[in-house]
Amino acid sequence: MRSIQITRVFDAPRPVVFRYWSDPRKLEQWSGCKDSTGCAVEMDFRVGGGFTQKMQIAGHGEFSIKGTYEEIVEPERISYRVDLGFAVTRVMIEFFEEAGDRTRVVLDQDGFPDQFLCDTVSQGTTESFEKLAALFASAGVAARS
Length: 145
Description:
Structural class: alpha+beta
Oligomer: single chain
CATH class: Alpha Beta
Radius of gyration: 14 Å
CATH topology: Alpha-D-Glucose-1,6-Bisphosphate, Chain A, domain 4
CATH architecture: 2-Layer Sandwich
């Protein structure tokens, strides 16, 4: 089975970054590849709870994923299984404090059945992280969150 690891440092404190993963309205603001034109999230953010995320992707229509939370340690870690439609993978997100108001996020995802799906998810996740970084870079987001 194939896996990905993506690391990114965000210009926001750890509790704020964590909130952008744990609040469905905040997650909708940044989740999805660069071609996604809309994202709707339903979430029961607790161990054993689940989520459904529906994205509109330009030129491709709607794409949905569903997951179940396995571990939540606020504001340090979130782990879940996600059904991508063609495979179920395991995701672990760790939030590390950096000097000042910065947070290093490490996302590990494993269980991909083929390299194409692995590469596609890696690209989409990287693009999502770009959108999240842009949110934090905009004036006052960290202070308002």
